[in-house]
Amino acid sequence: MAGQVPRPGELPDLQLPEKGHKLGAVSVRVTAAVDLVELIATLRDAGAEIVAINTFPATRGEPDVVRVFDFETRNLDSAQAAAAVRAVPGVAKAEPRATLGQIFGKRVIVIGGGAQVAQVNLGAVSEADRHNLRGERISVDTIALVGEKQIADAVRAVADLPRAHILVLAGSIMGGEISTAVKELQAVGIPVIALNMVGSVVKVADLVVSDPVQAGTMAVMAIADTARFDISRQKGRRY
Amino acid sequence: MAGQVPRPGELPDLQLPEKGHKLGAVSVRVTAAVDLVELIATLRDAGAEIVAINTFPATRGEPDVVRVFDFETRNLDSAQAAAAVRAVPGVAKAEPRATLGQIFGKRVIVIGGGAQVAQVNLGAVSEADRHNLRGERISVDTIALVGEKQIADAVRAVADLPRAHILVLAGSIMGGEISTAVKELQAVGIPVIALNMVGSVVKVADLVVSDPVQAGTMAVMAIADTARFDISRQKGRRY
């Protein structure tokens, strides 16, 4: 997809299963002797592209273990990734895992406040339940926030959230800096649904929906493989 | 915290601001010439501990840019991290960012299905809204799922989710493998609230709550700094 801006709703995603690419995950508990650079070089030399790394403090009470590194890899499965890192100095234990994408799938992000944010959620979670019953994996992730700067910062940060595929803005008045942030988010390929509200955000949103439950439902439909709903055909419409 | 299992609700978290530690984030757009190992070695040599890395495909249409690497660092702020990586071969652009922890904060995870999962969400999002108004950052993240194996796998994966601080199980019947997974999750320091339901999960949960809205509300209170609610004192109780 290099050199090309994706159509709304067609975001490529390295963290989701794609034809012809193995995905793997390994959780590695390490002592202070470990070198993260050496671990990554080892995975690379075994043929992996590194998709994600998350670091956690050790909390299981194992002696000498100071950190847990979770690696997600492409072109190497979980068992291969675990086997590759086991011999690296400082590795106490390497366990194959499911990738977060395999479990939690695509993410609908909801940002807003008050009564609306909970109602958008209700619609999105209920609709995701119906699609997940048919084998999909769609999560609904919500941050309740107020304030132009706070919301604009959160909208921008959606671009940095792994597996974020669509944003719903749930409020009564949003504009100014928030509308600028919406355009930046759309430029990386993430479409935005807004409730019908006061302010300029409804002019830049891909789709405006008056009812919050319907807005949450449509957001899930827009990214579901099991729904026939093409948000790029709804550009600028209001319901 | 090495060598010690945290009390329920007192999970240390490298991705959240902690006294005496700077946190930083930098988004790096790279060409095919870049070497991830060199980027990480550069950040390490500049004094950073790597907290997280996420990789995205390039979607802005910039020529030659093939990947976006987001790094989160400890002991280096965002501007320092961006300055450190700018000279690395293959870096087209390095932009300082807010960390995901600064924007989305601690996460309540809700797993379950049907009417209950949406109602738990309603309670959790409404309560998070109230705490976030007072300056906290608490997100509510939900995956609607059915099936013993599917739910057990998701419960285990909560341990690998950055900033996950508490889990709510929202269903009508859960036991067997799910109860085993709950015990594994508690062993890493993440407490579990269950609705009052059929099956053995209510015997292992830290807290059992009959009303789903109340369960979501209590989950947020349990991890909020602005609430006086100590889940470790509620161990095994039912409401």
Would you write up a description of this structure?
2 copies of one chain form a homodimer. Chain A is built from 8 helices and 10 strands. Chain A has helices at 36-45, 78-85, 100-104, 114-133, 148-158, 177-187, 201-204, 212-223; strands at 23-31, 49-57, 65-74, 91-97, 106-112, 138-144, 164-170, 192-195, 207-209, 237-238. In chain A, the strands form 2 sheets. Chain A has a 6-stranded parallel β-sheet with strand order 6-5-7-8-9-10, sandwiched between helices. Chains A and B meet through helix 1, strand 2, strand 3, helix 3 and helix 4 of A and helix 1, strand 2, strand 3, helix 3 and helix 4 of B. Strand 2 (49-57) of chain A pairs antiparallel with strand 2 (49-57) of chain B, so a sheet runs across the interface.
N-to-C span of chain A: 32 Å
* Number of helices, where a helix is a run of at least 4 consecutive DSSP H or I residues of chain A: 8
**How are helices and strands ordered from N to C of chain A?**
EHEEHEHEHEHEHEHEHE
Radius of gyration of chain A, in Å, reads 20 Å
Average pLDDT reading of chain A: 94
Q: Please estimate the helix content of chain A.
A: 25-40%
Largest interface, C-beta closer than 8 angstroms, per-chain residues: A-B, 74 and 74 residues
Strand order of the largest sheet of chain A: 6-5-7-8-9-10
Largest sheet of chain A: 6 strands, parallel
Strand content of chain A: 25-35%
The computed structural class of chain A is alpha/beta
